[in-house]
Amino acid sequence: MKKIKINRSLAPNFFTAMNMVFGFLCIIFASKGEFYIAAFFIVFAALCDSLDGIVARLTKSSSKFGVELDSLADVISFGVAPSTLVYFLYFHTFDTWGIILSTLPMIFAAMRLARFNVQLVGFDKEFFYGMPAPSAAITLSSFVIFFYDESGLTSFQKDLLIPLTICLSLLMISTFKYDTFPKFSKKGIKRNPIKFTIFVVGFILIIITKGKAILPLFIIYIFSGIFRTIIKISKQLLRHKRNEENKVKLID
To answer: Radius of gyration of the chain from Cα atoms?
Structure first.
């Protein structure tokens, strides 16, 4: 009797599949007007997206196939799903312009993921160029989780969705540098103990607040990439200025 061989890639691919399932559930519930639940399905999809990477590293089953499958899943859960969420939540009231606004997360998430795959060298990265698609989707969904209640969103809160959607979409294709989430391994914890500690504290806060802390935490994450770039440019300008001053002194 032949032994059935279990491919190690099945485990991470299972979580990738669940990522897609949760993205699909978000689309279904958003179309039914269950926006609060739909928003949480994006968060669940993001958890599965993280778990497939963790499991792939633990089982040493990372592959190009897994990367491509993961990207396809991400387009659904972090592109189509948030676009559907904001469309049925508010943007459908703007007719054609609402459709255009709603498609931005989907289009830019697909572009972000395509650029990531083209630039991918190896499977472990310490940072991303441009805001990751899952982070942008979680920020949009956490906006709903933070503000949405039985009476829905206020007019002001709905209007905030417009600049938030546009900014998050553009950040995905920006060149701002964003940290990856910590690797759950002894080596990863030793390499970035501060990053790991921040992640654990943030995770605890999310559980304690029943998801309300996700929005402020991801707002901080958004600005971390922007401020990092501003600081880097400022240092480069200051260095250039000093070099020019030194050249003038040498000439004199």
So the answer is: 21
